[in-house]
Amino acid sequence: MKLNWQVFATLLFVALAFSGTTDAVDGGLINTNAIRTIDLRSLPAVTEQVGVVVQNSHDSKAAKTYSVYIPHAKADRLAKVTVHERKSGAELQVSKMDNEHLGNILPPQPIEYRATLLQPLQPGEKISLNIDSVYLNTVEPRPKVVEQTGDQTWLWKDDACILSAYPINKEKTVVRTNGEIKAYSQIKESSKDGKSVTFGPFINGPSPNGPVEVRFRDNREQLEALTHRREYFVSHWANDLNILEHYALRNRAPALEAFDKVKQTMSRFMKARDNFVKTLLVKVPADARDMYVVDEIGNVSTSAVTRRQRLDGDAFKVMQLKPRYPLAGQWNYTWWHGYSVPLSNYLRVNHNRHALRVPFIGSIVGSASQKEEIPLTAINTHNTAVNAYELRITLPEGATNVDVRVPFNVDSIRQLPQSYYFDSSGRTVVVIEHANVAPSAVDAHVLVTYDYSVLSLWQKPLVIAMVVFALFALTSLCSRMQLGLAAAKPATTATKKTQ
Amino acid sequence: MKVLGLSAVDQTRLLRICILGLISVVAIGSRLYSVLRFESVIHEFDPWFNYRTTKYLVQHGFEKFWNWFDESAWYPLGRVVGGTLYPGIMVTSAAIYNALHALNIPVDIRNVCVFLAPGFSALTAIATYQLGKEVKNETAGLLAAAFMGVAPGYISRSVAGSYDNEGIAIFLLVLTFWLWLRAVRVGSAMSAAVCALSYFYMVSAWGGYVFIINLVPLHVCVLLAMGRFSNRLYVAYSTFYALGTLASMQIPFVGFQPTFTSEHMAALGAFGLIQVVAAAYYVRARVTAVQFRAFVGCAVVLVAALGACVLVVLTMRGAVAPWTGRFYSLWDTAYAKVHIPIIASVSEHQPTAWPNFFFDLNVLIWLFPAGIYFSFRELSDNHVFLILYSVFAAYFAGVMVRLILTLTPIVCVLAGVAVANVFEAYLSRGSSGPGVAQVPRAAVIGAVLFLLCSFQWHSSWITSTAYSSPSVVLASRGPDGSHHIIDDFREAYYWLRRNTEPHERVLSWWDYGYQLAGMADRPTLVDNNTWNNTHIATVGRIMASDEDTAYELARRHDVDYVLVVFGAMLGYSGDDINKFLWMIRIAQGVYPNDVREQDFFNAAGEYAIGDTASKAMRESLLHKLCYYRFGEVMGAQAFDRVRKQRLPSSVSLHNFEEAYTTENWMVRIYRVKGLDNFGRSHHEAAKFDST
């Protein structure tokens, strides 16, 4: 009884807390049907699509918004949420609701995202919505430890029922994988069909609400970048855009049971599969030059770059980085690489107004292939999840009125002062931070506009010339001054010698 | 004749500056082979420690650096870093680094460290010019500077990346000697004080300062013995000794040593002597010859007796420390091998083989005696110094390979003097005669120029082939001439750095201690500091013991990983199996009951590793860690490429498990297994698992 009282108290408190705020969830909506499709075919990103039919069952009030709940447990793995109207395909505006005011109440509350409907939903009307969310790294290897050449088995685990702000009349969940299903939760409504598993349909709410799981084999590489920092340096003088990327990478594959050098050598010789990630592929622009790969203790000399390639009308080169050691499951590797591209390809100038348009993030692909030359198509597989991302754009000295545009919401955008290479007045660095970057962000661009005058261009040479001139003048002055009391003796060049 | 509006004197001055500038460029340029061939990386072993401490200094500031206790070295003892190093090189780099950053130049501290020694080599050339000018004239100075810039004997210690104390210390050595000679010539307290300042910098940079503090007093004593006492000498030495000694005591690692160790007693004695002599001269100016003779007779006996008594008493009471082992080994080359194997085990402490002199000094080695001859011919105070320097440096260079380094400056200066004399004799304007008479002159000048050119050629060749390998990164050439980089060391160190816990301790032979600390950033048991022989012997004993004893000892020392270097796949001869005898000898010195060198030779007296190896060898941990499963990948009939012997047919290992092995098997890392869950020994567990 005591337990029930606690639950009741909590619910009461939550209800009070919700009612205390002005922006409560629109009441009266009902999900008459919900189908959740979980796509595990492009790990480590997990795509969830929930198609819902929403009905306004309220007597009189029209609903303007639709709330989406993200379970608290998955909230810090969430990369992206979008809501579309199914019929028109129009994307709805989604904003994250602040639930900080709830404090640390237990159980932890779901995170609320609120989509604004294009037209208010009148009482009795229905609308179909598609809610797409992308999570990173929610699938874990089970068993955690395997043999060097063993199969990788992964575990997907989630609630059988969809978490929603509104009641759900009928729902079902489909889990699609890319490999053989090894096991799945045997409940009444579960069924397997080839590489996918269906849970449901459940009528009227959660009869068996509890976690369900699917274990499946997937031997493709999965990596996560614990941190990834991309830096752009803009140099107008050299018409040069320098790009530097720092990575701290981890192979998400199950850990090694025991390292076996003999077996590793043999499988390399036999071109047999193992779980070591041996090559990292980085796509760089076709006109990239001056490439390098370095880690904390020096050059990584085992890397190569391909000739100019062409795929789907897109010209590029591929840097094939070989880490110092092959990456077994759960092993880490940290390094940075860089290259230069001509600035004019990324910069538009209109009088003094400069517009710099650069990719938001670069992609990296890990490959366990034993081949020397990795097939070109591998470059477009997204198998690296970026957990913490930082983008730094260093503008030239003298750039003012800096304006930054990113096509989606990011965690933070800051502008910092910084000084490099003989700077006299310092320059601006734009710092963008974002956790859990969705794979689709690879195609996004950042637009930075700033004012930059001709005078700023000449600032540095002028300052340096003045400093050098001042030094000469000072030296000249000093050499002409006589500081001693006696008259200077003529310089003796010959050494005194005792004969 | 005026050129560019300059008088003849100004023209030669401008020319000299230009020549010195070019010499500097050549000196720096010839040291960059290693960066061009490989990369901007810290070389060898000790530089990694210097680099690591410099990084610490830059990150944490001087105060913290001074009081740094490094608990990750010499686990579990730790090391008081601030008090056990010569901070000169770190402070120099940090100063350059901070100056560049003040100018908003974001240079990496690694690059400052890598290019420090080449930069200072240019300064050394200029200091050598000054020294040559001091003892002879500008021509000798320029020649000496040119020799110094490219002499392989000095390049061997100052290529880019060779971030060691010697890199700046040779500059300071030459600078101090030049300032000393200048102080003796000028005789002002000011110039002697400048010399003392330079000496202080030298003390802060390198233990080789002892050479200065013995050579300068020796110079003074010899001059006194030659009856060349002068007030200039008195002022120079008194000022230099007083200021220099006080300044040197400010370095914590030196501390009060100048007051009680034998190495510094000569300087103190010379200081006393010059006071006595000065007093004698003072007295002589005021009394008659007879009285003076009596006075001198009494005084000499009294002072000598008193001095000897004090020294004996102090030495017996231990107040004056006896000579350290490294100094004994300077007198008796066989001493170290018998008594202190740890010193003898270092290749740079071996006696020099004669081809080394030619290799490192080439033409200079026979110009050197000529220079000494010219010094004798006009025996000035300066020349006495040069002769003393030559004699002692030549002796020490013969005893220990690395001391060719201190010989190089004097060889360059004297060679410069010799060649300058030749030029003087054959290029003087007065001796112009008819055409036929010019032929021998042209021949001599041509021959000398040929020698000089061949010296330059030899130096570049030696530098590029012998002295530009970082030893951290190895290179090999394929049969088609292609360049292969062998990077196993960094592969292993980086693996440790990224894939082990920061507190986990790595056991390896002491050679790799500094590199492990610098590149892998993990605590080590022993490193290249070698201050605790017992600890090193313990590591040697672990390597030489059988698996169970080693496991017991390793666990008792909290070891998590064991790292061994193994060259059998590539034929890398500097591996641990080849160093094993030294490990055994050092271990035997401390644990004579547990480790015996004799046990590691088989019945035929061979140092075998295959199936014919002795029992102790086959059961030793090092042998097992090296050859564990190696045969499986090399095939049944495989050979060890270093020792040219058949591999052992079976190697069992239960208490340690393979954690990582690099691409070419050069570095193998093993994890020390935890205790078995059922309390069995690991052998029993393995037996159970296999059934």
Overview of the structural elements:
Chain A has helices at 2-20, 72-75, 261-270, 454-480, and strands at 29-39, 45-56, 63-70, 78-85, 93-96, 111-121, 126-136, 140-141, 145-146, 153-159, 170-176, 181-184, 190-193, 196-203, 211-217, 223-235, 240-251, 255-256, 279-285, 289-295, 298-299, 304-305, 309-311, 314-321, 332-342, 347-350, 353-359, 364-367, 384-394, 400-405, 412-418, 427-437, 445-451. By secondary structure, chain A is mostly beta strands. The radius of gyration of chain A is 30 Å and the shape is globular. Chain B is mainly alpha-helical and 691 residues long. In chain B, a hairpin with a 5-residue loop joins strand 3 (474-477) and strand 4 (483-486). The chains are: A mainly beta (499), B mainly alpha (691). At the A-B interface, helix 3, strand 21 and strand 25 of A face helix 5, helix 23 and strand 9 of B.
How would you summarize what this structure contains?
The complex is a heterodimer of chains A (499) and B (691). Chain A is mostly beta strands. In chain A, 12% of the residues lie in helices and 46% in strands.
